[in-house]
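Supplementary Methods, section 5.1.

A reviewer requested that the exact input to the structure prediction be made available. We therefore reproduce it here, unchanged from the version used in the analyses.
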Amino acid sequence: MASRTFAVRRADPADPVDLSLLQEAVAAAPGAAPVPAQREPLAAAAEAPEGSTASAGAVAALLAHPDVDVLLALSADGERPEVVGLAVLRRGQVVLPAPAVVVHVEQLWVDPAWRRRGVGHQLVAAAAACAEAAGADEVSAAAASGQRDVQRFLARLGFARPMVVRSAPLPVLRSRLAAAGPAAGVRRDRRRAALDELVARRRRQLDRAPG
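The structure derived from this sequence is encoded token-by-token as follows.
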């Protein structure tokens, strides 16, 4: 890997070589770059045993999804191509402030041995080209809260943080909603009324006590 040359291209869902390469990348990426996309098809592929039909099926489904593009950064140094970076793009729409097409970079990963060599830059450049082809006016990117290097990298390229997006597992959300719902408010009001009555009773007792 002396020259460390690479090329970025879109993964072909009909190419078994790309399927195999992406499976290898999925096995390496989640531990290095945990981002929301991994909870969906990429997560299923990563959690399945290597070489299993579940892993292959999840990766194939990801490649075949009509609104998803997978960009591969491939090393050209060895006898066989090696994935040194990837980006998972998803086309979507936003409603506010006005309806528009947006391309989301759901996952951006670069092999640690290949970082600071322009791989991430070229992957984002390819994402921008895909966005232009899709007629999108904006590109968004996700990075986990602990990925400070990724956040700084995106900020240098002009990605701002217009809002903070929070997520909650549905069971946790339902539990918290129940704890903070109308019934919980009634219980709090009753406890407060009981406490107020206790304080008032104590004050009356003190007022009647001999001076």
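The two ends are 94 Å apart (CA to CA). These observations are discussed further in the main text.
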